[in-house]
Amino acid sequence: MVVKPWYKQFWPWLLISLPVFSVLKAVHTVYIMNKQNPDLVVDDYYAEGKAINMNLAKYREAASRNLSGGVLLAGNKVIVNLKANPLLGNELQLNFVHNTVASKDFKVVAERSGESMFVADLPSVLDGKWNLVVSDTKEEWKLRASFVLPATEEIKLSY
């Protein structure tokens, strides 16, 4: 009986292929992790905490000015309806922040259209979950809202 050398048999190659496949899969996983950096990780937590406290002061400023209102989104238009207030200027800044993908975030400026309405055009029709921060152009105060699009009702702005 003639015995084949080891490299011509099936079982050694099967046993060798398992760790080789594992190493290749690990290299592929490391490549994917380096290619897609997470947007939600913050390096400097102390500075981020200080910025949060400054933002909270701006929401308290909106409460002290008795600002309130709502937002309507229809197609690529956004309409902000604020309760009439003599402190409002002619423009509002709208910061749209996507919940998970930072590259989708954008800002638009809404111009006054009537006594308490502000209108802006969106770069595209939005869908999914978003956060909106409404402020004056000097960012002295802020209002915010979280919503899922498409929305059929007015979205209430809060402090």
Tell me what the structure shows.
With 159 residues, the chain is α+β, with helices and mostly antiparallel strands. The protein has two domains: 8-35; 45-157, Immunoglobulin-like (Sandwich). The chain has helices at 10-35, 45-64; strands at 69-74, 77-82, 91-98, 106-112, 117-121, 128-136, 142-149, 155-157. The protein has an eight-stranded antiparallel β-sheet. A hairpin with a 4-residue loop joins strand 4 (106-112) and strand 5.
Question: What is the element string, with H for helices and E for strands?
Answer: HHEEEEEEEE
Portion of residues within helices: 25-40%
Q: Could you name the CATH homologous superfamily of the largest domain?
A: Immunoglobulins
Overall mean pLDDT stands at 82
User: What's the tally of helices?
Assistant: 2
- Cα-based radius of gyration, to the nearest Å: 27 Å
- Decide which structural class fits the backbone: alpha+beta
* Strands in their spatial order, largest beta sheet: 7-6-3-4-5-2-1-8
Compact overview of the structure:
The chain has 2 domains: 28 residues; 113 residues, Sandwich (Immunoglobulin-like). It is of the alpha+beta class and 159 residues long.
